[in-house]
Amino acid sequence: EVKLVESGGGLVQPGRSLKLSCAASGFSFNDYWMGWVRQAPGKGLEWIGEINQDSSTINYTPSLKDKFTISRDNAQNTLYLQMSKLGSEDTAIYYCAREYSYFDYWGQGVMVTVSS
Amino acid sequence: DIQMTQSPASLSASLGETVTIECLASEDIYSNLAWYQQKPGKSPQLLIYYANSLNDGVPSRFSGSGSGTQYSLKINSLQSEDVSIYFCQQNYDSPPTFGGGTKLELK
Hints:
Distance between the termini of chain A: 39 Å
Largest sheet of chain A: 7 strands, mixed
Radius of gyration of chain B: 13 Å
Shape of chain A: globular
Oligomer: heterodimer
Helix content of chain A: under 10%
Largest sheet of chain B: 7 strands, mixed
Low-confidence stretches of chain A: none
Number of helices of chain A: 0
Radius of gyration of chain A: 13 Å
Strand content of chain A: over 45%
Number of helices of chain B: 0
Number of strands of chain B: 11
């Protein structure tokens, strides 16, 4: 069974950083692109970015490219999202997802709240 | 970026009814379109990919169609468990973009 489990969310002050993790199991992690998608409260879905199997290609949505960094550790079957200079506009549920053009498996999501 | 416009934004229908949700792309996406279902408090789940391919385990009452810039999701014989928000997503060009969502409720 494919499982994606995010962790690392919580309350963070504006301007600070936070790193999310996504633990993958039930499939060959190093065979797939992986991505991050977020959803602000009561809003739609926003693609953050993606990383290929060997981390040689990482793409971001342009507006987040200077704030967010995606990485992965294939030995640990884990995907990461490093977020910096956080603002209230970054308050959202963050999902990791297995990416195959479309997103065929999603994690349960982790809430990040940016507030003083 | 390719803009995805969904309609309607909300929809109320009765059990057993057939409903259709539309998704319009700002340019031709050559059937590179997926549909997702998000139940309250849950993560999105893939329903349809490449415009009309049903994902494993998805009931056959769901179907997708369309080409070019216009796509639709059809739900036959609406069930109570279909109450959700539905999103379309294009994956023809980067960045992948989503429609604003359609909230489906029971009448």
